[in-house]
Each structure stands twice: as structure tokens, then as C-alpha cells.
């Protein structure tokens, strides 16, 4: 058994700037606690930074730990995997202590909504099955009406 704190000095991961808008710090926690059923991250979004649109192969749980953020859900239309139309279907604000579940394969984005403050959350990405690790697919979009390409 391994105990740690999200406030402990853990190794920060280098984030791929193609997957975020603005400055984001990422601490991978799952390896510290030796979790094999999910990937766990502590994510800090600086001054209005957010994720680009993405989906996960398994469900995702977000636990807000600091500041004010949001989660936005989108609906995809069309059969093309890399270019398609989108429509925002839901937006909720997240405050410290809030917990939200995002079902597998749901197109969404989350991050800070305050240009002058930091927002952070713990993200728990469940494995799609016992034999497959959690996978995220990232998209380039205008956040309004269309996805223009698949990033990964």
C-alpha cells in the first residue's frame, strides 16, 4: 500500500501543447499509488487554459480541487472520424469539491473559466476493459460548430 498527497512534490509530466489551450501542469498519480485499473492525474489549468475536445475509451471522473472551471459536453454529427460537425449540449461550472462523471466516448472539454485564476482537478480515467488501458482521442476544433481534424 502506498500513501501520498496531491500536494506532495510529484514529478510533473510534460503535456502535449496540441491537446490544451494555454498553460497546463500535469501530475500523474496512478503510478505513485500503483493503480492498474485506471489512470489518475492532478491537472492544473493556468488562467483560462482548458483541454481541447476529446473522448475517452472508459468513463472519466473529475474532482475539482481548486478554483472555478467548467465541463462542456458536445454531440457529434456525421460519420467522418476526423472532420465532423459538433453542437454543445451541456455546460456546467465546477467549483472546489465538485465531482462529475463523464461516460465513455462522450465528446467534451474541461478547464479554467477564469482568466485571472487557476483551476485544478483530479481526473480518474477508467480502463475500457480489464485488458485495455484507458485511451484518449484528441480533436482540433473551433469549440462551436466543427471538428477539423483528429490529433490522436
What do you see in this structure?
The radius of gyration is 15 Å and the shape is globular. The chain has strands spanning 12-13, 20-21, 24-28, 38-45, 50-51, 54-56, 60-66, 68-77, 84-95, 99-102, 107-112, 119-126, 136-141, 146-150. A six-stranded antiparallel beta sheet has the order 1-3-4-12-7-10, with no helix packed on it. With 152 residues, it is mostly beta strands. It has a single domain, classed as Jelly Rolls (Sandwich), CATH 2.60.120.10. The chain starts with 11 loop residues before the first strand and ends with a strand. The model has no long low-confidence stretch (mean pLDDT 91). The protein contains no helices and 14 strands.
Amino acid at each position: 500500500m502506498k500513501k501520498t498527497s496531491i500536494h506532495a512534490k510529484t514529478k510533473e509530466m510534460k503535456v502535449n501543447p496540441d491537446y490544451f489551450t494555454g498553460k497546463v501542469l500535469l501530475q500523474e498519480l496512478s503510478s505513485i499509488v500503483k493503480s492498474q485499473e485506471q489512470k489518475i492525474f492532478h491537472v492544473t489549468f493556468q488562467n483560462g487554459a482548458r483541454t481541447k475536445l476529446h473522448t475517452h475509451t472508459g468513463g472519466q471522473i473529475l474532482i475539482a480541487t481548486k478554483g472555478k472551471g467548467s465541463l462542456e459536453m458536445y454531440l457529434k454529427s456525421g460519420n467522418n472520424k476526423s472532420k465532423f460537425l459538433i453542437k454543445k449540449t451541456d455546460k456546467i461550472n465546477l467549483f472546489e469539491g465538485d465531482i462529475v462523471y463523464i461516460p465513455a466516448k462522450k465528446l467534451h472539454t474541461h478547464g479554467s473559466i477564469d482568466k485571472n485564476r487557476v483551476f485544478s482537478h483530479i481526473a480518474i480515467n477508467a480502463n475500457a476493459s480489464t485488458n485495455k488501458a484507458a485511451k484518449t482521442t484528441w480533436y482540433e476544433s473551433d469549440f462551436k460548430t466543427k471538428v477539423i481534424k483528429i490529433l490522436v
